[in-house]
Amino acid sequence: MSGWVRVCATSELLPGESKVAWDGDTPILVVNLDGDFYAVEDQCTHEDFELSAGVFSDGQVECTLHGARFDLRTGEALCAPAYSPVAKFPVKVEDGAVWTRDDR
User: Fold this and answer.
1) What three-state secondary structure class fits 79?
2) Which keywords annotate this record (predicted)?
3) What structural domains and CATH numbers belong to the chain?
């Protein structure tokens, strides 16, 4: 299991904003939803495409490639063409910074 990866200072990730961090070879999309931070793998499960390029609204991200949507809080796939959830990762806020890790 990897250690925690620093994403950014909390002041650098305002509500509605997102950042991508890397834990080894894993891209992790971290999103601030109204002051709560969530992290999912930055890869659509339908096709290998980064979710960070997508459209964010109502706690969801829509993949720009084919329109699959995912719940950023749970990783759940919400519509076709994606049927599998994206991996969800832990997030912690410590010493004014946002941290995540690939805990698979």
Assistant:
1) coil
2) 2Fe-2S, Iron, Iron-sulfur, Metal-binding
3) 5-100 (2.102.10.10)
Residue with tokens 């909390």: 10
Q: What is the pTM of this model?
A: 0.95
Q: Is the dihedral of CA 55, 64, 49, 85 positive or negative?
A: positive
55/16 Cα distance (integer angstroms): 11
Q: For 39-53, what is each residue's pLDDT tens digit?
A: 999 999 999 999 999
Query: How far is C-alpha 25 from the chain's CA centre?
Result: 15
At residue 1 the predicted structure's pLDDT band, cuts being 50, 70 and 90, is: very low
Residue position matching structure tokens 């990762």: 89
CB atoms < 10 A from the CB of 36, how many?
13
